[in-house]
Amino acid sequence: MTLSANQLKTEIIYPSSDGKPMAESDPARDYLIYAVEALDIYFQDRNDVYVSGNLFVYYKKGIPSAVIAPDVFVVFEVDKKKRVSYKVWEEGGKVPNFILEITSASTQENDEEDKPKKYSLLGVQEYFQYDPTGDYLNPRLKGSYLFEGKYQPITSNFLPDGVSSFHSEVLGLDLRLIDGELRFFDPQTGRKLLSHKETEQARQEAEQVRQDAIPRLLELGLSIEQIASTLSLSVEEVELILSSDLGRRFLEG
What is the Cα–Cα distance from 222 to 220, expressed in whole angstroms? Predict the structure, then answer.
């Protein structure tokens, strides 16, 4: 029996996992999750921006060993969709524009020496490193941009309160160290980017502030309609809050 050429071909497997833990420590995991979620929320209205982390990025078709797995990365001008791995040749040749590595004891040498060489050859425009514990990098946060095939350091600025801030031209965002913790900021609004958990916490706190304000505004003589307008609530929402235990205690007191 003669086998066809197709039958003789061996399927090339591109694994989606190496079976290793996502991160080796709580700080590394926490900041990886924060960065991916905060950037994903920031770019949520753009369908041409893909944000991911700890995902295999294959950059040579037919060679599964040609792979990188950045802690956090952003790709522009590709579809926003779920992927089990990222294959450059299936994405119009688009490689990550921005990469952030969370440096630790086991990754320091690789993050400092091997990865910059590989990322620069791939054409990654910006490469940032962050050390959550401050044991392996000095300074703890640093960034570089690609210029004529080589990475050049991004100069940090010190804000009036002493905070160190790096500007990412690629993202249009600032990366800052707040008491040693990495946070993204929108320089246009000055607002800190939040994770999903932080966003929900902020929503709950804002809701509590509005609920607490209603009795005080009633004491000042504002009508329910005026309170609704002041707090950007509907009249029905104000009435619902007033019907709660807090509202009844105020009205009875």
Answer: 6
Which contiguous run of DSSP H or E holds residue 167?
A: strand 164-168
Instruction: Put the strands of the sheet holding 67-68 in their side by side order.
Output: 67-68, 57-58, 86-87
- HSE-up of residue 206 (Cα within 13 Å, Cβ side): 9
Q: Which residues contact 211 (CB under 8 A, 6 or more apart)?
A: 241, 244, 246
Positive or negative, the CA dihedral 31, 32, 35, 41 is negative
Instruction: Output the pTM of the full model.
Output: 0.78
149: left (phi over 0), alpha (psi -120 to 50) or beta: left
- Retrieve residue 118's tokens: 């590989």
- Average confidence score pLDDT of the chain: 86
Closest CA to 174 of 122, 131, 126, 111: 126
Q: Which residues contact 68 (CB under 8 A, 6 or more apart)?
A: 56, 57, 59, 115, 118, 119, 122
- CA 187, CA 236: separation in Å to the nearest integer? 37
Which ranges constitute the DSSP H helices of the chain? 5-8, 26-42, 108-109, 115-122, 196-219, 224-230, 235-242, 245-252
Percent of the chain with pLDDT over 90: 53
Per-residue pLDDT tens for 36-71?
Answer: 999 999 999 999 999 999 999 999 999 999 999 999
Contacts of residue 102, defined as CB under 8 A and 6 or more positions apart, other chains included, come to 23, 27, 28, 31, 32, 71, 72, 130, 131, 132
Q: Which residues lie below 8 Å from residue 236, measured CB to CB, with a gap of 6+?
A: none
Tell me, what amino acid is at 130?
A: Y
